[in-house]
């Protein structure tokens, strides 16, 4: 009996992000709300960029592809301007609201 090849959690998320823009917005919003671990935002942005194609997002954001990979890596430390450009390139925006 053949077993189905499993896919990684990251690939599952990327596929869903590719198909569902509302899920993508909620995914980024949830990442922004994680105050204890700022790297969660980088992971979410990397997944979103991968869902739309890193090269395409980098071009739309006006960033070199390699620079985008570095900025969204585990050890990345992107500028605010990079974060804004990437979110705009993927069709989303960062927002701020009063803490409750």
Number of strands: 0
Order of helices and strands: HHHHHH
Helix percentage: 55-70%
- The overall pLDDT average reads 90
Residues in β-strands, percent: under 5%
Can you tag this structure with a few keywords?
mainly alpha, 100 residues, 6 helices
Structure description:
This protein is mainly alpha-helical and 100 residues long. The chain has one domain. It is 63% helix and 0% strand. It contains 6 helices and no strands.
Give a short synopsis of this structure.
The protein is mainly alpha-helical and 100 residues long.
Topology of this structure?
Elements: H1 9-19, H2 21-33, H3 39-52, H4 54-61, H5 65-71, H6 80-89
Helix pairs in contact: 1-2, 1-3, 2-3, 3-4, 4-5, 4-6
């Amino acid at each position: 009996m053949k077993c189905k090849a499993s896919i990684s959690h990251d690939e599952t998320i990327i596929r869903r992000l590719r198909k569902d823009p509302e899920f993508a917005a909620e995914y980024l919003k949830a990442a922004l709300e994680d105050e204890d671990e700022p790297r969660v935002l980088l992971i979410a942005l990397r997944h979103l960029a991968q869902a739309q194609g890193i090269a395409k997002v980098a071009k739309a954001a006006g960033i070199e592809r390699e620079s985008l990979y570095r900025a969204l890596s585990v050890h990345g430390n992107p500028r605010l301007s990079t974060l804004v450009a990437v979110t705009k390139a993927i069709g989303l925006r960062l927002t701020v609201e009063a803490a409750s």
